[in-house]
Design brief:
InterPro entries: RibonucZ/Hydroxyglut_hydro. It comes from Paenibacillus pini JCM 16418. This is Metallo-beta-lactamase family protein. β4 and β5 form a beta hairpin. The chain starts with a strand and ends with a helix. α1 runs antiparallel to α2, α2 packs across α4 and α3 packs across α4. The chain has 4 helices and 5 strands.
């Protein structure tokens, strides 16, 4: 068991079963919804994923979805990180969506749009904290 913190909650922990190559993630990979709008912080998410990556895992058990294979989880996380990188420090949803369209040459899906909004909301929270 390792305390990993993360975006969702600072007290998040993971449990790794080495013999089975299974990791229980709980909710640590999900958005912060405790402090206003649901949000992701790219830096916090990257730190969290670096902690998870150091384990040799075949299957991940999350708090709200069916278990995922290594390939399934990292495909999802890679897309999430890519969206966060495209959004960058943008705090306007319209501008972030325009940037996504420009980079990806396509409109975001409903799920991708939600993640764009999550990163924009995270950036807005940072701006508010920095102004305080």
């Amino acid at each position: 068991m390792e305390h990993v913190g993360g975006v969702h909650a600072q007290d998040s922990s993971i449990i790794y079963i080495p013999d089975e190559k299974v990791m229980f993630l709980g909710d640590c990979i999900y958005q912060d919804f405790y402090s206003g709008e649901w949000s992701y912080d790219l830096n916090e998410l990257t730190v969290l994923l670096d902690k998870i990556k150091k384990y040799d895992v075949d299957y991940y058990v999350t708090g709200h979805q069916d278990p995922k294979t290594h390939a399934e989880l990292w495909s999802w996380m890679d897309e999430l990180i890519q969206i966060g990188e495209i959004v960058g420090e943008e705090s306007s949803l319209d501008k972030a969506v325009a940037r996504y369209n420009e980079v990806q040459k396509t409109l975001p899906s409903e799920e991708q749009l939600e993640y764009i909004q999550n990163f924009v909301s995270g950036n807005q929270k940072k701006l508010i904290r920095n102004e305080a």
